[in-house]
Amino acid sequence: MPHATVRSDNRTQKDPVPPARPARRPSPRWTRWCVAVGATLMMFSGVALGGSQFVLHAATSKVTRQSLIGKAAAPRQHRTITGAKNILLVGIDTRPHQDSSQLTRSDSIMLVHIPADHRQAYLVSLPRDSLVTIPAYDNGATPFHGGKNKINAAFAFGSRGLTGPAALSHGFELLALTVRDLTGITPDAGAIIDFQGFKQIVQVLGKVCMYVDETTTSIHLGKDDATGRTAAPYKINPDGTVNHRIAGVTPNIYTKGNHCLNPSQALDFVRQRDLLANHDYDYGRQRHQQQFLKAVLHQVMTDGLNSPTKLPGLLTAVGKTMTVDDGGIPLEDWAFAMRGIDPDAISTIKTNNGTFNSRTVPGVGSAEILSPTSLELLRAVRDNNVASFVQAHPDWVAPSGPTPAN
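Structure for Transcriptional attenuator, LytR family, as requested:
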C-alpha cells in the first residue's frame, strides 16, 4: 500500500480552536513516540525466533543496563523467566543541556503484562494525569515528603536535583514505588525510553502501516499554501495549549482508514491529542499509541528482521532506544521466553474505558480519577487474571483495525 496522502481541508483562520482542556508542558516531537518502545523487549523475541544466537547477542549487547526499579522490585534471589511477568515502561522528555533544577515528568507510563504461558501480551497505559498518592522518598539530593499528585510527577520528584544515570534511577524508582502502592504490582523488569534512539528505528523501517481509527488533524505540521513548504498550522501557547489557527497554512489531516505513514507523518499522528474527530484527547492519543506499537512491532518482525540491509541498522537503533533494568533475568532469556508472542496476540486495554473522569484537586489542578473498574483491571494485572477481565469487559479492549499491507 502506498504512503498515506495527507488530505487538506478548506478551513480558514476563523475555524474554532479546540475546546479548552487542562494545560500541559510543551514537549518535542519524539515524546509522543515513547509508548512504541514497549515493542522492544518483544522485538528481541522476534530475533530469537527468526535469527541466530549471534544476532540475538548482537541485539541485546547494545542495550544500556541499569538498576531502575530499586526498592519497588520483588526479591531477586533465584529469579527465573517462568510464570507471569509485568514490565513497567516509562517515556520521558529529557532535553540536551537541561538544568538539573528543571523537573522531568514521565510523559507516558505503560504496563506490559505477559501471562504465565507467554503466548500473549496485554498493554495497559496509565493516564499521566491520574491522581495518586506518591510516597515519601529521599534521593540523596532533594527529599520528597510525599502527597497527592498526578502520577507523572513521581518521576520528577524522584529525580529532582540529580542529573545523568542517577536522575534516571531515582526518578524511575519513585514512579515504580508509586505504581506498586497503587496497584500492588512489583515490576519484573523496566525500561526508560530515549526518543532520539527510537526515531532511528522508524527511519530504518522507512514507513509504518496501520489503521487510523478516527480522523485526526495535526496542530504541529502542515503546508504553507503559498510555498508548499512544511509549516506550523496553529500557534501554540507556552503551556502547550492551542492559541489559534495560522492563516495560509493547511494542517496535515490523517483520515480514518488504512495508511502507510512515512516517519514524519507517523511521528506527527501519534503525537496528536487536540483535534481528534471523537474529541477524546489524551485517551485517543493513548489508544493510538498502543495501536501504533502493534503496527511497529508487526513491521519489525515481518520486514526489518528479514532484511539483510535493514537488520544491522535496526539492531543498533533498538540498542540505543532505551535503558533497561532486566530484573536480574538476562535479556536473552526474556527474548526466548517471549518468542511465541505474535503482534496479533497483543491486546491493548483502555483505562477508564477511554472516557474522562476528571476532578479539580486543590494544589494539583485537573486530574484523572481512576474508576473502580480501572482499579479492577490493575488488580487483574497483578493477579495474572487479565483474560477474565477482558472476557467480562470486552469493550475495554481498544480495536486495532485491519492491518494494511506493507
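The first strand starts at residue 64 and ends at 65.
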